[in-house]
Amino acid sequence: MSQEVEFIEPMGDDAGADRASTLFTESFSEEPMGVWAAPGRVNLIGEHTDYNAGLCLPIALPHRTYIALAPRADTRVRVVSDINPEEIMEVDLAGLAAGDVKGWAAYPVGVAWALREMGFDQVRGFDAAFSSCVPLGSGLSSSAAMTCSTALALDDAFSLGFGSTDAGRVKLIEAAIKSENDMAGASTGGLDQNASMRCEAGHAIRLDCRPGLSAVESVTQEPVDFAAAGVELLVLDTQAPHQLNDGQYAERRSTCERAAALLGVDNLRVVADQVNGAAGSASTSNDSSEAVPSAAPTLDSVLEQLTEQARVVGGMSDEEIERMTKRVRHVITEIGRVDEFVDAFGHGDIETAGQLLDASGDSLRYDYEVTVPELDVAVDTARAEGAYGARMTGGGFGGSIIALVAAGRSKEVAQKIADAFADHGFGAPRALPVQPAAKAERIR
């Protein structure tokens, strides 16, 4: 039994703008003020670290969500998507509270609500039509593509003045995050929105999520040229159902927050910096026997301290303690892997970069436990087919993997994964051709 892989090509700005504009006109019987677009993202490394004040390394996808929008004089919002063009969702912003809007409309409506909650009363109602080629449920952040495109459109439509600068975009990112967390009820730590709003073409962003950093301090543009390195980044959507609002994401986030409290720090980044700074290569090894300053904590000593605190102060069971220490081990080592990957790839050391991807994937699988069988089979197959490295990407519990493969081998490896899926009784995966793309912008 065999099944062929579908490769999802980017829509292209002209086609995307045309589709969104046409849908707008057909739905609302007028022309839109303009068309804006925001990309999905794929994270190269640094997973489940954003809400731990850690480091991430995402790139923007060439696959984008397009929004045609026109402001209204009242507080009414009407939104429509080309997924179901016959259904126009209507909401009034007046008196709206967190969680009041259900379904996909919560994301764009939530952005306007969030901006008003943040004090921007000039934001009123609007009509909007969406067209997207970011695969839904793929772990490639279709939700952030929607909220960020909406935020940028509302910024223009109501003359907020944030979209033209990187620092200003951070304010729009806040609204996009608030929409997802508070209106849609889907926990997010900010990686997705920062990538969609701030990535430059041909670059990844090294995103530092420590609180209190300025826009300049929080992001560094890191050149990523796969072709020059003789490799391709295969992004493969397993099409396993992807859910982040079923409590799994929130449970891990709360576990990390509780662990930080037990360790007496504001967040796990504080401990990660101490451990990774002391052990240097702690991200790829749990061996604490390396020569380090005696006063500096090692990963093992931190986990021992956490175990004691969890037992004595937290009153936790052995099973709960084991689960917590595994989660913390992932976060600490994953934060360390980000800069190691930047250094390795930047120096053309693709072997080491691939090993770091593998280490990240194994940590997500065994310590953070956010994979599903489809993700595991896809990663294992990519590695068996000679990928330099492969891992799940995104929040997990479904979604996509990435594999760093030799130039010209993406389709071959993707097909091998599809064959393995058929052997396991899984549905056909789909793949995306990916190069680091540009951030959200106005198209028309």
TrEMBL record:
EC number(s) stated in the UniProt entry for this protein: 2.7.1.6
Q: Name one GO molecular function term.
A: ATP binding
Q: Which residues form the GHMP kinase N-terminal domain?
A: 107-197
Q: Name one Pfam family in it.
A: GHMP_kinases_N
Identify the residues that the record assigns to the Galactokinase N-terminal domain, covering every copy: 23-71
The UniProt entry, under PROSITE patterns, shows: GALACTOKINASE, GHMP_KINASES_ATP
**GO BP annotation list:** galactose metabolic process
How would you classify this enzyme at the top EC level?
A: transferase
Gene Ontology CC terms: cytosol
Residue span(s) of domain GHMP kinase C-terminal = 342-424
Highest taxon of the source?
Answer: Bacteria
What keywords tag this UniProt record? ATP-binding, Carbohydrate metabolism, Galactose metabolism, Kinase, Nucleotide-binding, Transferase
Write out the similarity annotation. Answer: Belongs to the GHMP kinase family. GalK subfamily.
Q: What is this protein called?
A: Galactokinase
The record lists the organism as: Bifidobacterium choloepi
